[in-house]
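Justification of computing resources. Each target in the renewal requires a structure prediction run like the one illustrated here; the chain below, 344 residues long, is used simply to show the kind of job we budget for.
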Amino acid sequence: MEVSPSLEETKGWTLNDWYDYAIRFLEEFKKEVQAKEGKKRGKGKFNLDRAQIFACLHFDAKSGIPHLHILINRIDLDGNLMNDSFIGDSAVKAAHTINVERGWELPEDIHKAHEKEITEVCYNILRGMASYDWDTYKHGLESRGYKVHEQRDKQGVLHGYTILRGNSRFKSSTLGKGRNLTVPKLEATWKKLHPVAPSVDKPGYTIGTTQTTERKSFTEHNSARQSVAQSKPEMPSVFMKILSVGDKNYSITMPMEAYTAMKEAIESPDGSVPFENVLNVAMLLFMNYVDAAAAISESCGGGGSTSSNWGKDDDENERERARRCAQHANWLCKPIRKYKGPHR
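Resulting structure tokens:
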């Protein structure tokens, strides 16, 4: 985890101040984890009292802003694998509590301000483009100091992107309004920012009875066609696929709108994992094939775990569930860094 108070909030701090802050953060973090786990006991419990913890003070190379890197071994001192599902939420809540306690600016307020700033930059770049072009848009962001991480499939087709501002990441799906800065909607957003002046119809040369009759007949015929079309119920669009994992085949069936929402939320971690692999993990989670999803994520070098009761929440629709599966797949497929010890 990375804990980064602002430069103003840590001005004049000594190493002891940073040590006290790390201890305070871990105390609050422990409370949040225990509150989420409730009465859970035994194997899989995230037990900080039996964990190896290492904290390091680091200074950003460009800005010089100091921040803490906290590493926690998921194998506790008793040899148990600790469950770290959704542990990021607990870290955010712990930081929030300390910020309120010290009267600091809240992390979510800072994040929203940066999100608004980036959104305006995106709109300004689109306004300044004579024609829509992804490379021009990307270059505009990078020329303003941001980094752009693309999500492409094996064919090189762009499915999504993330904007990096310092150590913070902003998904295109969270920017703008109605997801209008995501890849599928980006060109349409550019068009809305470049309205075309309405054309003026030229007056007709003849306004006779025959012309009027023809227009009336066309209108009635068109209305009849629309009436017939409206009477036919539209069949829901469905995405279907068979995924092979090991020696088993898994049938995937989901609404097309859920599949589209899922693809928009997929991120290839650091570009090191194929887009399709992360998408396949998300689809398997959507169908509740947890073991198959874990097998693919582990083959990508990822880690983490998924509870056996993974499934749809009562208060979410198919699109929301698809996005949640995509977000969990992003996390599951994130490669675990492995360091080799010194040669003897």
